[in-house]
Amino acid sequence: MQVMKPIYQDTYPVGKEWIYEVKYDGFRAVLNVTKDSVMLTSKNGIDLTTQFPEIITYCEQQKHVVEPHIPFSIDGELIVPKNALSGDFGLLQTRGRMKSTDRIGMTAAARPAVLMAFDLLIDAGKKQEKRRLTSRKQALQELIHSFEGHPAAIKYVDYHEEPGALLESVILHQGEGIIAKRASSTYKAGKQHHDWYKIKNWRTITAVLTAYDKENDYFHAQLADESGHFVPIGKCKHGMEEAERNTLTAFFRENGKSADNLLILPPAVCAKINCLGQADEELREPRFHRLSPSAAADDCTTKQAVIDLAQFPETVELSKLDKLYWQKAQIDKLRYLLYIRTVAPFMLPHMINREMTIIRCPDGIEADFFYQKHRPDYAPSFIPDTKALQCPDLQTLIWFANHGSIEFHAPFHQIGSDSPREIAIDLDPPADDALPLAIKAANLLKVWLDQMQLTAFIKTSGSKGLQLYIPLPDNQLSYEQAGTFTEALARLLVQQHPDLFTIERMKKNRHERLYIDYVQFGKGKTLPVPYTARIRTSGTVSTPLFWEEVNTGLTMDDFTIYTVPERIRQKGCPFASYEEARNSQKLDSIFHLV
């Protein structure tokens, strides 16, 4: 059957009859599961089954636990997750074009797709379209939650009743937008309804319109690069009011110079264009916002477009963007702020509701720095008005970064709690070239923790060592219990390899051995949060790792402000399942030891 399609609208409807969901950026797909087959098809009926084998395999493995629901049909969005609320459409498109079964298999294993399920069309052979939406979603949630096995290839898309907060979260994650749905709506094919509306999370850039295509009515847009030359960034056609379009078209016809099918003008006419991104001389889903007669062509720069596409909070006025923060690595303030904006969705979950310690370098890392644990008196009103320094949201994080905050350190418990949310072990090599000692220690710990059925995560310190984390369910362990366990692990490592590892706090007594700093884990102590930059000349970052990366080829200089954003895009975040692991962690082995 044809799927129900949301209708574009500039703003979301409000009222008690509406609920709101994340609009994921991917391929609309329908999953059909019968006793004999599993099939994935696009909204246009194209078979996607062979392109996304990880979805099919997962469903086949789940049939025994969802047997009462078979046959069933799920409506959803197929994505390659970029973060919790967004997919990477470019990576998904690349997968969709693949033909080689081997290449598809390797890509599926390295960067698996996920079906974000938001509606239930058939359940136990019964059509569901006549049921109200909230009833269908409740049945869908029960179906999805009956699945076993992690990581899950199918996830339930929950709904929200407060659109403003949801849209704010989507903006943080730079997602596509939200969908407003009438809670009582039935499922209707196509767009013949007034029940589903999509609201886009537009990025708005100001560009110069330099050409008009007489054949397809598209306007060509350009921006001035660093040398002042105008370069193409894409084309735009839709969104302009008819009268405005007619005036603009007439201007090009009267003044444009003909070249093939184009009418070309020198850079002068500026317009604000909404889009979802820009790359490879293309704008993603461009839509005219309005003409901008007051804008000067020379001000329509690639640099400004990069800033606009990043969606920095309007409450923070960015300043002195050319200032060099890392002289040796040639990292200026703008690049640093763009880095922080990219990793914010991954950093903030480890910072929210914690008393932070920040290291500030207002004149760059080679100049003087200072520690800050309290809210500055001159902080704007949106910074939490508490004695302890807190960083609960994007605007606060960007404000501190704009004021020279380089390192962000967090304790292991949340405000108001005396229980740690994770166990952490700092593996501190004696020198920069002694990382192999930390690698060996981390892998030994991983073997033991696997045997204890404890899920552990690993990251670089961003300095010279590694830091191992074990997420804990809330209020299950005291600091004393967790500390006893951490000390036991450290002493066991030293006992087995006294020539390699030590728990000796005095540096002069370590004798080139790796220091297992279990003491750094405790109430009042802190460690760098994932993805924080460090005060190191090469611009290194405290970077989450996949366990298979913790080997002899590991080097700290591979993880910098320059490299980490693209690393996340290509590989995803190794800490993506951190909260999932927290909630499923089995602590029996810890309780047995302590």
Number of discrete domains: 4
- Report the major sheet: 6 strands, mixed
CATH architectural grouping of the largest domain: 2-Layer Sandwich
Radius of gyration: 27 Å
Instruction: Tell me the CATH topology of the largest domain.
Output: D-amino Acid Aminotransferase, Chain A, domain 1
First CA to last CA: what distance?
58 Å
The helix content, as a percent range, equals 25-40%
Low-confidence stretches: none
Query: Which geometry do the CA atoms define?
Result: globular
Strand content: 25-35%
Structural class: alpha+beta
Mean pLDDT: 96
The name of the CATH superfamily of the largest domain reads: DNA ligase/mRNA capping enzyme
**The level-1 CATH class of the largest domain:** Alpha Beta
In total, the number of strands is: 32
Continuous helix count: 14
Protein name: Bifunctional non-homologous end joining protein LigD
InterPro entries: DNA_ligase_ATP-dep_cent (IPR012310), DNA_ligase_ATP-dep_CS (IPR016059), LigD_pol_dom (IPR014145), NHEJ_ligase_prk (IPR014143), NHEJ_LigD (IPR052171)
Family: In the C-terminal section; belongs to the ATP-dependent DNA ligase family.
GO molecular function: ATP binding; DNA ligase (ATP) activity
Keywords:
single chain, 594 residues, alpha+beta, D-amino Acid Aminotransferase, Chain A, domain 1, OB fold (Dihydrolipoamide Acetyltransferase, E2P), 4 domains, 6-stranded antiparallel sheet, NHEJ_LigD, Bifunctional non-homologous end joining protein LigD, ATP binding, DNA_ligase_ATP-dep_cent
Describe the structure.
- The chain is of the alpha+beta class and 594 residues long.
- It has 4 domains: 7-200, D-amino Acid Aminotransferase, Chain A, domain 1 (2-Layer Sandwich); 203-310, OB fold (Dihydrolipoamide Acetyltransferase, E2P); 324-411, no CATH class; 422-525 and 536-592, Alpha-Beta Complex (DNA primase, PRIM domain), CATH 3.90.920.10.
- The protein has 14 helices and 32 strands.
- Strands 3, 4, 5, 8, 9 and 10 form a 6-stranded mixed β-sheet that branches. Strands 13, 14, 15, 16, 17 and 20 form a 6-stranded antiparallel β-sheet that branches.
- Helix 8 packs antiparallel against helix 9 (394-402).
- The longest helix is centred in the last third of the chain and has 18 residues, at 479-496.
- The radius of gyration is 27 Å and the shape is globular.
- The mean pLDDT is 96.
